[in-house]
Amino acid sequence: MRHIPLLLAGLLGALAHMQLQAQPPAPGRLPQAPSAEVRKFIKVDAPLLALTHVRVIDGTGAPAREDRTVILRDGRIDAILDGAAAPPGGAQVLDLQGRTLMPGLVGMHNHLMYTASINLDEDDRIPPPGFFVTEIAFSAPRMYLAAGVTTMRTTGSIEPYTDLNIRRLVDANQIPGPHIDVTGPYLEGRASSFPQMTAMDEREQARRTVAFWAGEGATSFKAYMNIPADVLATAITEAHKHGTKITGHLCSVDYRQAARLGIDNLEHGPVFTDTEFVPNRKKDVCPSGAEISASWEKLEVSSPEVQSLIRDLVARKVAITSTLPVFESFVATRPLLSKKQMAMMSAESLRSHLAARAAAAANPARAARQEAALKKEMAFELAFVRAGGLLLAGPDPTGNGGVLPGFGDHREVELLVEAGFTPVEAIQVATANGARYLGKLDRIGTVEAGKNADLVVVGGDPSRRIQDIENVEIVFKDGVGYDPVKLNASVRGMVGTR
């Protein structure tokens, strides 16, 4: 037993050494050289690279341009030329005939956590102390990067120090993953069903929490379902004081209230979360899901009430994050996960999800209502954008475990097309719009000379067949090309465990 303290000291010393080795580069300095772990997944790495004969979807919503040559130099897009132009001398040339180059995805609801298993009691209720989610900080960054997500926002954290450390390690080129905007811990009120969240009902507590985590390095914040209105107002003020933005998956506070308080962003869209139209609603109390659903079943997107809400959100410049995959996963009439996705999941995660889907299939009437609600949310998002609103995109890998990091990002874009967006518009939502919200559109989000070489090469033409967005062949982050097959293979069977 006397050897245990020595062993513990040795382990702590080794961890401290690893932390010192993985410090992020100082501002203005080039990133550190990739570690041996990162080099395993690099497919292309050259200071001067010519991507020839490639179709370009630039992320602005403009039509695809055929037969381009894109020059990458020192991690940036140097030039976009006609396909007949000769590559510069000394460039490594990649002939990408039949492939499409598009901006790296900017995932705006991309947790490093996941619903690994739904802990139901015998009576199909969640027993005390509530619903748990699992941090998957090893597998999620790799899967996001493999899908072409080069920048992501965590949009709520249950392990904020883990998320901050993952960002630090990615920035230091010690592990593979996207650039990460870390959201602080959930700003939640009392009566939450998640025991991993705080119970916040005092304004001073909100102020202290936001100030502390802004100091620790959180770059955004998220309010949650049971937060009281006055506490939310304080959190918004404090977040803005620190130069950060705040979003919300709300319930006790409705969309219009939150907009008037100055919130920057609202998650999921209103059909599943906005409580404004629930009759006899009590102040600062979150109605039941059934009450929210019933209030929206009676409304059409074209109705004066909903159109007024859209105008108010647009006028106050409140962005909406579309997370259609997490709602689709509950609809029993929708397709099951592909075999490829199932292979990524741990045995318990897959069992839990399939059991939830089987239970949902036993209630056809409920499935029909859920399908109708999903379609209405799609219609709202299209109307919101057509009215001038800023729509963002993210998969939200929670719910019943049917949304996986990366795979869900592709499905989100496909569902936006189902909603009525053109393919290039849907890609714009998932790229340039996220970059604009994050204040990074001058660096990422579109394929333009001078911007960071955060790009995705896919087989086929997503501007004609949006499902081709799944055919990811190379992901460039800061001009370095990663192998998506190797990234996903390295975490196969791990989603839900690590």
From TrEMBL:
As given in the record, the signal peptide range reads: 1-22
Q: Is the keyword Signal assigned to this protein?
A: yes
Q: Which residues form the Amidohydrolase-related domain?
A: 100-257, 415-479
Entry keyword annotation includes Signal = yes
Keywords, in A-Z order: Signal
**Per its UniProt record, what Pfam families does this chain match?**
Amidohydro_1
Which InterPro entries does the protein's record reference? Amidohydro-rel (IPR006680), Metal-dep_hydrolase_composite (IPR011059), Metal_Hydrolase (IPR032466), Metallo-dep_Hydrolase (IPR051781)
* Name the record gives this protein: Amidohydrolase family protein
In which organism is this protein found? Massilia norwichensis
Supply the source organism's classification: Bacteria, Pseudomonadati, Pseudomonadota, Betaproteobacteria, Burkholderiales
